[in-house]
Design goal:
The complex is a heterodimer.
Chain A lengths: L2 H33 L2 H14 L14 H17 L6 H14 L6 H14 L4 H6 L2 H22 L4 H31 L4 H11 L3 H8 L5 H10 L7 H15 L9 H15 L7 H24 L7
Helix pairs in contact in A: 1-2, 1-3, 1-4, 1-7, 1-8, 2-3, 2-8, 4-5, 5-7, 8-9, 8-12, 8-14, 12-13, 13-14
Chain B lengths: L4 E5 L2 E5 L19 H9 L4 H16 L3 E5 L2 E5 L3 E9 H25 L4 H4 L5 H5 L21 E9 L2 E8 L6 H14 L1 H7 L7 H11 L10 E4 L8 H11 L3 E2 L4 E4 L2 E6 L2 E4 L2 E4 L22 H6 L4 E3 L10 H4 L2 H9 L6 E2 L3 E2 L3 H9 L4 E5 L9 E2 L5 H13 L4 E5 L5 E6 L2 E10 L1 E4 L3 E3 L4 E5 L13 E9 L2
Parallel strand pairs in B: 5-25, 7-15, 8-9, 8-13, 13-14
Antiparallel strand pairs in B: 1-2, 3-4, 6-7, 6-22, 10-11, 11-12, 16-19, 17-18, 17-19, 20-21, 21-24, 22-23, 24-25
Classes of the chains: A mainly alpha, B alpha+beta.
Chain lengths: 316, 485
């Protein structure tokens, strides 16, 4: 597989996964607007922006009343949806679709048609149209489109390197954002301890873990249990452990790449998998260990780049 | 005498003109025999049915990304080539004749290219003037004495043909980077699905094996000793207007789609950069013009090419399709000599006629052209895409005056041809059937043998009365069916 193709597919996976996850975050946040108290809404936005490591243009309204809360939500959702920055659905979608366009000969017709149709529709979207009816439904529908794209990849693609690179990009982005979201949640919980519990509930909902959590731990959401689950539960599809285990398998399938017998990316992924697996057993320094996992995931991205996407000096 | 009349041609309200060949109706308004199924089908269409099919096809093209990119003031946009859903039908008998003519023509053009880059016998023997070849912008003196390893210069040829009351005539040859085959296949896929019953009834010949034929052809031109050659399709990149086609072809033949930056030359062999290291490439189906192929030999500022590629080709270590230097055959002055070249190299009479062409480099032809500008079509010898041409009858006196000044300044850059009564075919325009001018571009594949799939990219001038079929000038496409009849 060409280096440029592998790179393009990897980024396609990353961008489209990110676009889907941002949809999910906004969708859960917008449902809070219906009946949740204002501080909780504020906590939610702050957690989202924290996990995306960005700030809204002009900042957030710190102590909003009812009227401003809605106006603020409209602005913030718009910022994360249609703005031109790396934390908006629009940017991620455009970049992901452009990667897909360039790599179209390596993905299935079904994947392309599904993605492109959605993209053409999305281009017509205006924020006030989203807001006019039930905005969370818009985000739910859009998120489903991204899920459909990946489901089509799973259903229609030959399990060659193209497939593994798409999945690698997707899982890496998911793990990074999940870790960042949990870190952001913990930081806000220190600031607003009274909101921790409800925040845990929406965090579980964001990663579709709420029902599983109830079955495993009961109705009351406890932050430690929730984070344990999101980090190291091998049966939860959104957990970091599930993601990193799949990343290890993908890297094994892809092989060494241009670096001969060394595979620094695979070694790093295995180390992360080990750390994640041990997370539940060792209860000490959880916050800093979460930060370590996040940082190691960022390093993994770079290692994958140098392992597969950077030709040797003598091949330039 | 104006023979145009609006005839209720067997219940279809449609205009025929006996001066212009109609693909579906005779000059008396009778349905041609091989079109009877199509005619019956069109009669059954209710109001809005045709438009509904057309809209469906257009939407599927947009969704599936069967587009070309246009760049304007507002950045890049993706556009579809409008498809008219009414297919153009050609009988098997006529197609066979076309095929024979195309095989003959491409064979002669291959002989010509071999000749001009070696002994130049045709020039020595006075068949074609030396200055016409050697001063041609697409002639590459750097290739003098070179010969493609597999022996074929023109591996893929797209020849533009029109039909008049006098039969088929060649309008131009596209040898360097002929395009449009993806639209031929996309049009077929879309129309076949939309008109499934009619398609079956007409017993249309299959064109879906084009990818297989192309792959076999490319394998045949591979360097010796490479029984399982690695083939790559080379694109200028995603910003090229024909990127869709490049991607489509790479996929059809199951080969990687490479850009210049994916390739490198080492020890006069070409390699591509893969995640496992360098991998040798044996055949490159390049969709990039000659002058951009190798900055060491041609344009120094080319970022699209690969340094050392031409030397690797000269040494026979990689095959290029089409071979560099073939662009000389696209020149419209050279085109005028193709019938003579057929006679010279093959000792045969041309099976396909040329359009009568006057070369403005000749004093007599220049004078004739300037005197009759209002009645002629004038083209630049190296023009393409319908750009820079003058259609006399459609031009204003001021336009003709400006164009005449350009011709006088560089007469060798222009040719003129009579305005042809190009055939028309029924098209759905604003909900009703109307005749529009059409041409066709079949594709000839030449490796160790010649292959032609029975189909073509059929272009249609959608604007009423227009003779310009180019997609860049508002033209559209049609499916072309080769049927028994």
């Amino acid at each position: 597989m060409l280096i440029r193709s592998a790179d393009g597919l990897f980024w396609m996976g990353r961008y489209l996964e990110r676009a889907g996850l941002i949809c999910r975050m906004i969708q859960i946040q917008l449902s809070a607007l219906i009946d949740r108290p204002l501080p909780e809404i504020h906590f939610g936005w702050s957690r989202i922006y924290g996990s995306l490591k960005t700030r809204p243009h002009g900042g957030m309204i710190e102590h909003p009343d009812d009227v401003f809360a809605l106006a603020d939500a409209f602005t913030l959702a718009g910022d994360l949806t249609l703005s031109r920055n790396f934390s908006s659905i629009k940017t991620c979608f455009e970049f992901g679709r452009e990667n897909a366009r360039q790599m179209r000969h390596l993905i299935s017709d079904e994947m392309w048609s599904s993605l492109n149709q959605c993209f053409l529709e999305f281009q017509k979207v205006e924020m006030h149209d989203v807001w006019r009816a039930e905005p969370e439904k818009f985000y739910a529908a859009l998120e489903r489109e991204f899920e459909t794209f990946f489901a089509l990849a799973s259903a229609t693609m030959y399990r060659d390197r193209a497939w593994h690179f798409i999945r690698l990009g997707r899982l890496l982005d998911r793990n990074q954002l999940t870790a960042s979201f949990m870190i952001s949640h913990c930081q806000r919980s220190v600031e607003f301890p009274e909101l921790r519990q409800t925040g845990v509930r929406t965090m579980l909902r964001t990663f579709r873990a709420e029902e599983s959590y109830r079955r495993m731990h009961g109705y009351e959401p406890h932050q430690h249990n929730a984070i344990d689950m999101l980090v190291s539960d091998p049966n939860l599809s959104a957990s970091l452990l599930t993601g990193i285990s799949q990343i290890v398998r993908d890297l094994e399938s892809i092989g060494h790449g241009i670096r001969g017998n060394r595979n620094d990316a695979l070694d790093a992924a295995r180390t992360i998998a080990l750390r994640v697996d041990q997370f539940r057993q060792d209860k000490r320094f959880r916050d800093s260990r979460l930060l370590d996992i996040e940082s190691a995931s960022l390093d993994l991205h770079n290692l994958i780049g140098s392992q597969y996407f950077s030709p040797d000096e003598n091949e330039r | 005498m104006d023979l145009r009349q609006r005839l209720p041609v067997e219940t279809i309200d449609y205009e025929v003109d006996s001066n212009i060949f109609d693909e579906m109706f005779s000059s008396k308004g009778n349905v041609r025999r091989h079109c009877r199924h199509l005619h019956e089908f069109l009669k059954t269409l209710g109001p809005g049915d045709g438009k509904s099919i057309q809209d469906r096809v257009a939407k599927s093209f947009l969704t599936d990304g069967i587009v070309f990119t246009v760049y304007g003031e507002n950045g890049a946009g993706e556009r579809i080539i409008p498809v008219d859903f009414v297919p153009r039908l050609i009988t098997e008998r006529h197609w066979q004749k076309l095929e024979e003519g195309l095989r003959q023509r491409v064979k002669a053009l291959n002989c010509f290219l071999s000749d001009i880059y070696s002994e130049a016998r045709a020039i020595r023997d006075g068949v074609i003037p030396a200055e016409l070849v050697f001063e041609c912008r697409n002639y590459l003196p750097q290739l003098k004495g070179s010969f493609p390893a597999g022996g074929t210069w023109v591996v893929v040829c797209g020849t533009d043909l029109v039909r008049t009351n006098a039969g088929f005539q060649v309008l131009e040859d596209n040898l360097q980077v002929p395009s449009g085959v993806s639209y031929m296949l996309a049009n077929r896929a879309a129309i076949k699905t939309s008109l499934r019953t009619l398609f079956r009834a007409c017993k249309v010949r299959n064109i879906e094996n084009y990818g297989h034929a192309l792959r076999e052809t490319l394998q045949e031109i591979a360097p010796a000793g490479r029984p399982e050659p690695v083939i790559a399709v080379m694109t200028p990149g995603v910003y090229n207007s024909a990127f869709y086609e490049h991607m489509f072809l790479a996929r059809e033949i199951g080969s990687p789609l490479v850009e210049g930056r994916d390739l490198m030359v080492r020890d006069h062999h070409v390699y591509m950069r893969t995640i496992k290291g360098l991998r040798r490439v044996d055949v490159i189906y390049r969709r990039i013009d000659d002058v951009f192929l190798d900055p060491e030999i041609f344009r120094k500022d080319s970022l699209l090419g690969v340094p050392g590629l031409i030397e690797a080709w000269k040494r026979g270590n990689v095959a290029l399709a089409n071979a560099p230097g073939t662009g000389v055959g696209d020149d419209k002055s050279v085109y005028a000599y193709v019938p003579d070249l057929i006679r010279y190299y093959l000792s045969q009479e041309p099976l396909l006629k040329n359009v009568k062409t006057r070369l403005c480099r000749h004093e007599k032809d220049l004078q004739y052209t300037l005197d009759n500008l209002a009645d002629l079509v004038v083209k630049r010898v190296d023009g393409s895409g319908g750009y820079g041409m003058l259609v006399g009858p459609d031009s204003s006196p001021a336009e003709r005056e400006a164009y005449a000044a350009e011709i006088r300044a560089n007469p060798g850059d222009f040719i003129s041809q009579p305005v042809l009564a190009i055939s028309r075919s029924p098209c759905l325009i604003d909900g009703r059937l109307e005749p529009r001018h059409v041409d066709l571009r079949p594709f000839v594949l030449t490796g160790s043998r010649t292959r032609i799939v029975p189909g073509a990219f059929c272009r249609v001038a959608l604007r009423r009365g227009s003779l310009v079929v180019n997609s860049s000038q508002g033209g559209g496409g049609k499916d072309l069916w080769v049927v028994s009849g």
